[in-house]
């Protein structure tokens, strides 16, 4: 794992690693009380009823039975040893993303659920409440997904906004460009899927466009 202290996004490493122990420690909320794991048992989501079949490569994506089908799904790849996914040294984040008011910018490759590179994503994240030892954090997130060869804005893109928490989170779709011009809907984030070392993680998002 990177030696520097990564901002709250790194907290998802802990959340993912502890997902198997959720039933014994951190329970699902009453509205969605059933913990559903993906096929490998490395990540889970909270469902209102029964679990659905795991989807994606090797069944990496846990689902709820009867859940709406995403319009598209993708994952951002974060390598925490690289500067573009590391908040250390960024002028707007004197607390390295872990203290109130820190702003961190990230750029990461974007892949589909077959691990084909389909573009990149840019994050601008502000910490508005200090992360806790248990892994909870509170951040405002502005993110744009560029589907294509560059991030010049002359390609298909979708921008989203909302509050990120250390659990499945719903964010609003602000709009888009190209074939996503005027896009509306919402996005669900899911727990990170990380390698054994914890220094490379996939951050999945499901888009539900209306």
TrEMBL record:
InterPro entries xrefs: Allene_oxi_cyc_Dirigent, Dirigent
Question: Keyword Signal: yes or no?
Answer: yes
Which Pfam family, just one, is annotated for this protein? Answer: Dirigent
Subunit structure, per the record? Homodimer.
UniProt subcellular location = Secreted, Extracellular space, Apoplast
Gene Ontology biological process? phenylpropanoid biosynthetic process
Described purpose of this protein according to its UniProt entry: Dirigent proteins impart stereoselectivity on the phenoxy radical-coupling reaction, yielding optically active lignans from two molecules of coniferyl alcohol in the biosynthesis of lignans, flavonolignans, and alkaloids and thus plays a central role in plant secondary metabolism.
Question: Could you read off the lineage of the organism from its UniProt record?
Answer: Eukaryota, Viridiplantae, Streptophyta, Klebsormidiophyceae, Klebsormidiales
Which Gene Ontology cellular component terms are annotated? apoplast
Question: Which species does this protein come from?
Answer: Klebsormidium nitens
Cleavable signal peptide? 1-25
Q: Which domain of life is it from?
A: Eukaryota
> Know the name of this protein?
Dirigent protein
The entry's family comment says: Belongs to the plant dirigent protein family.
Q: What is its main location?
A: secreted
Membrane-spanning regions, if any? none
Q: Alphabetically list the UniProt keywords.
A: Apoplast, Secreted, Signal
């Amino acid at each position: 794992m990177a030696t520097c202290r990564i901002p709250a996004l790194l907290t998802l490493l802990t959340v993912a690693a502890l997902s198997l122990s959720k039933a014994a420690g951190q329970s699902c909320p009453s509205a969605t009380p059933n913990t559903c794991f993906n096929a490998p048992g490395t990540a889970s989501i909270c469902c209102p009823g029964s679990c659905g079949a795991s989807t994606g490569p090797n069944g990496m994506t846990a689902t709820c039975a009867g859940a709406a089908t995403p319009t598209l799904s993708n994952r951002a790849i974060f390598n925490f040893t690289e500067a573009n996914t590391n908040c250390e040294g960024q002028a707007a984040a004197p607390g390295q993303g872990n203290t109130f008011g820190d702003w961190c910018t990230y750029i990461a490759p974007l892949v589909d659920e077959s691990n084909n590179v389909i573009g990149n994503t840019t994050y601008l994240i502000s910490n508005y409440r200090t992360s806790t030892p248990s892994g909870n954090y509170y951040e405002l997130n502005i993110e744009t997904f560029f589907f294509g060869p560059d991030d010049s804005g002359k390609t298909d893109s979708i921008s989203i906004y909302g509050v990120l928490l250390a659990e499945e989170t719903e964010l609003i779709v602000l709009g888009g460009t190209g074939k996503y011009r005027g896009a509306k809907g919402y996005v669900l984030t899911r727990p990170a899927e990380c390698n054994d070392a914890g220094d490379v993680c996939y951050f999945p998002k499901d888009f539900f466009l209306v």
